Amino acid sequence: MIAKTYKYSQPFELESGQTLHGLEIGYHTYGRLNADGSNVIWVCHALTANSDVLDWWKGLFGENDYFNPTDHFIVCANVLTSPYGTSNPLSINPQTGEPYYLDFPDVTIRDMAKAHQLLAAFLGVDSIEIAIGGSLGGQQALEWSIMQPHLIKNLIIIATNARHSPWGIAFNESQRLALLADETFLPGQPDGGKKGLKAARSMALLSYRTYKTYNISQQEDDDNIQDDFKASSYQSYQGDKLVNRFNAYSYWYLSKVMDSHNVGRNRDGVEKALSLVKSRTLVIGIRSDVLFPIEEQEYLHKNIPQAEFAELDSFYGHDGFLIETEALTKIITSFYKTDAAGSNIRLHTTA
Questions:
Q1: Which residues act catalytically here (predicted)?
Q2: Is 145 a catalytic residue?
Q3: Is 209 annotated as a binding residue?
């Protein structure tokens, strides 16, 4: 399915006070909005994903999956600064006629949520039955539920946090240092920073998986090997995969966007901000997650008024939220079975 594009004709004011002109938002929709508008599932995607959620979250989203276009109107928007149809550093700067590169304005999670609001209004969505996201997607969904607390009836946030941690920021800064070490990055050119991006992705992967993941999946069968290890080639392969589909400038900005996440900013603190959430909330943590430790999800559960908590046991660490779709389906099914008030949405359960 080809992404659609929403073009916003007014200046888009960012949290920083800067203004973005000619905002475009790439998005996908699946299914149809029902008569009373009660079947909307809004997906907020993670760092380097795109708006085609039926492609990257298979097993949870699909024709025969829990969230399906027969029962639901599914919306996923490509986020600001990402290169899959939304305004980003390789977009043309109207003031220069050239790509922005590192002159693109500063963007925050709050700005991403504000862009979602514009798209929702354009699509005629005035109620969201479920907003769901993991990692950066969870940060967006949470922020949105605070900005418009009565819009989102149910909130599902996975492997995410209330504010990005010093640990997470340190990981991102190390990746940005890799980008800066590539001499082709700073001049600004369409294919600039490829070597740095490859190294940055290799670093990031270590935070997405675990010691156990590597020890099993990349273990050598030959005790005599001294070079060309499986783990080495795997890191290189994963770096090349991202380079072939992404750009270094979007990666730079997205890492900074994640660092900006703090729901307490200008709201009298994090706990005060979380108390504003009106959505019935399911918080899912992954015990093996080293990037977003489960303590961060337990904190969300403790401070969001109508929150329930579930633990996902995954071999894959942080990436478990993208891989363990069968387990996620079971958790979400169980959550909605406990909804004594009943839900307007028809949730299709896989066999």
A1: 135, 289, 318
A2: no
A3: no
